[in-house]
């Protein structure tokens, strides 16, 4: 990215891939911290069911922390979600919300 500010809504509809090239889902919404003027999470739909089978059950989406995002362009690249799902951070805040 060139550092030019973009509208937050430009994230909606973009496909999300892990940094290993695995399709994760599609951005459906964005979670904001209004006081900090920051994006704190992205809501994903159209999930890769194989990737999230143990986590979402019958649900249709997940919320992932925005700090997992590595790059935003034509697609959104995030950290390797599979490893994050199976090994939550010691703080306990790295779990994916359903």
TrEMBL record:
This is PRC-barrel domain-containing protein. It comes from Halorussus aquaticus. Residues 8-82 form the PRC-barrel domain. InterPro entries: PRC-brl_dom (IPR027275), PRC_barrel-like_sf (IPR011033). Coiled coil: none annotated. PANTHER family: PRC-BARREL DOMAIN PROTEIN (PTHR38137), PRC-BARREL DOMAIN-CONTAINING PROTEIN (PTHR38137:SF1). The lineage of its organism: Archaea, Methanobacteriati, Methanobacteriota, Stenosarchaea group, Halobacteria.
